[in-house]
Design brief:
Shape: globular
Strand content: 15-25%
Helix content: 40-55%
Number of helices: 3
Structural class: alpha+beta
Length: 72
């Protein structure tokens, strides 16, 4: 698991992690459940219509993150 950031709020430790393929099904279900609200802030949700789409988006985002990390 790649942790982008971690911080504490009260007694809770929060970790922002980069999604992995094994999380695609759960992430897709979350998107399906709250698509309208999420799409207001995350426009890519309109293109995620299946678990396969979520896996493709995860891989795309990971590649973009790698390119940014390698060249900055």
């Amino acid at each position: 698991m790649f942790v982008l950031s971690s911080f504490q709020i009260g007694q809770q430790m929060i970790k922002l992690v980069f999604p992995e393929e094994k999380q695609a099904e759960e992430l897709f279900e979350i998107i399906e459940t709250d698509r309208k609200a999420l799409s207001e802030w995350m426009p890519w949700t309109k293109n995620v219509k299946s678990k396969k789409d979520e896996i493709e988006f995860i891989n795309y985002a990971r590649k973009k993150m790698l390119n940014i990390s390698c060249w900055n």
